[in-house]
């Protein structure tokens, strides 16, 4: 039941890394008639959420969201700055006109859209199954997971999704993802079902010790895992929001999105 991005579950593959495509080619906007380069744009971000946004070695904000924002500026020939603030202050700072765009992992929700504008998602939170690579376990399906043990974080959206769509799986609740990952590494569960981004960071890190890999496809149902994240602007900045959306589409078309994705996601969560 893996959900599809536009063009299929993955937009492209490069060096073995799956690159997602969130853009619908049938919905491309016409070239903007406004001149966004006439103003300097202030981006706001947080510097404690790698690989999307974090402080680089010299303290300068970087990460996938930040470098994508810089690429948008370059594509639109805008003068831009990027300022790091505490994550929980970003939207209030935007509302108070202390910045013009938030480029951070703030989920797109009806409550956010009631206050602000946002581009179409440039990143989403796929749910994924991971398994040990030495057990030869089948790819997940409702039948294949019957009576198989699957670690999930208790009370999470992933636990609810597993119960709804894989009802015969033997779910095993854990208090947090790190504990579930440790159980998978030790072979105490057959699979873990969780957020693909966090699993990708673990799979590619030293803690996993090359024990495990993704199996099966990605799951992107909005009702469980949200709409993803976009560039957020004030409601009175519609022209800027449209320009940002147009630039994101063009960065995908031109391959810049893929270039940045490969830089920050050596193990793709998709």
Overall description:
The two termini are 14 Å apart. It is elongated, with a radius of gyration of 19 Å. The chain has a five-stranded mixed β-sheet with strand order 7-3-8-15-9. A five-stranded mixed β-sheet has the order 12-11-13-10-14, sandwiched between helices. The longest helix has 17 residues, at 238-254. With 270 residues, the protein is of the alpha/beta class. It has nine helices and 15 strands. It is 30% helix and 23% strand. β4 (48-49) and β5 (53-55) form a beta hairpin. Residues 1-10 have low confidence and may be disordered.
Short description:
By secondary structure, the protein is α/β, with parallel strands linked by helices. Helices cover 30% and strands 23% of the residues.
Our count of helices gives 9
Q: Compute the average pLDDT.
A: 91
Largest sheet: 5 strands, mixed
As a whole number of angstroms, the C-alpha radius of gyration is 19 Å
Oligomer: single chain
List keywords for this structure.
single chain; 270 residues; alpha/beta; five-stranded mixed sheet; 9 helices; 30% helix; elongated; disordered N terminus
Topology (SSEs and partners):
Blueprint: E1 12-14, E2 17-19, E3 40-45, E4 48-49, E5 53-55, E6 61-62, H1 64-76, E7 79-84, H2 90-95, E8 101-102, H3 110-115, E9 116-118, E10 127-132, E11 149-153, H4 157-165, E12 170-174, H5 177-185, E13 191-195, H6 196-203, E14 212-219, H7 222-225, E15 232-234, H8 238-254, H9 256-264
Parallel strand pairs: 3-7, 3-8, 11-12, 11-13
Antiparallel strand pairs: 1-2, 4-5, 5-6, 8-15, 9-15, 10-13, 10-14
Helix pairs in contact: 1-8, 1-9
């Amino acid at each position: 039941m893996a959900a599809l991005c536009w063009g299929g579950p993955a937009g492209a593959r490069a060096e073995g890394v799956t690159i997602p495509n969130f853009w619908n080619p049938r919905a491309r906007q016409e070239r903007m008639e406004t001149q966004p380069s006439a103003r300097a744009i202030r981006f706001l971000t947080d510097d404690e959420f790698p690989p999307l946004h974090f402080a680089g070695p010299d303290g300068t904000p970087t990460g996938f969201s930040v470098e994508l924002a810089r690429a948008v500026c370059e594509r639109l020939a805008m003068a831009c700055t990027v300022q790091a603030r505490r994550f929980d202050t970003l939207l209030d700072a935007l509302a108070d006109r202390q910045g013009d765009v938030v480029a951070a992992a703030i989920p797109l929700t009806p409550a956010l859209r009631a206050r602000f504008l946002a581009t179409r998602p440039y990143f989403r939170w796929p749910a994924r199954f991971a398994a040990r690579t030495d057990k030869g376990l089948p790819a997940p399906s409702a039948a294949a997971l019957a009576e198989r043990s699957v670690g999930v974080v208790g009370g999470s959206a992933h636990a609810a999704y597993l119960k709804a769509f894989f009802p015969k799986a033997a779910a095993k609740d854990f208090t947090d993802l790190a504990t579930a990952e440790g159980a998978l590494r030790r072979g105490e569960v057959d699979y873990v079902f969780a957020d693909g981004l966090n699993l990708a960071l673990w799979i590619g890190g030293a803690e996993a010790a090359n024990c495990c890999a993704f199996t099966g496809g990605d799951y992107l149902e909005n009702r469980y895992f949200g709409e993803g994240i976009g560039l957020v602007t004030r409601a009175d900045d519609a022209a800027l929001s449209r320009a940002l959306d147009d630039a994101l589409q063009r960065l995908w078309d031109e391959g810049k999105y893929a270039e940045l994705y490969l830089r920050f996601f050596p193990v793709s969560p998709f």
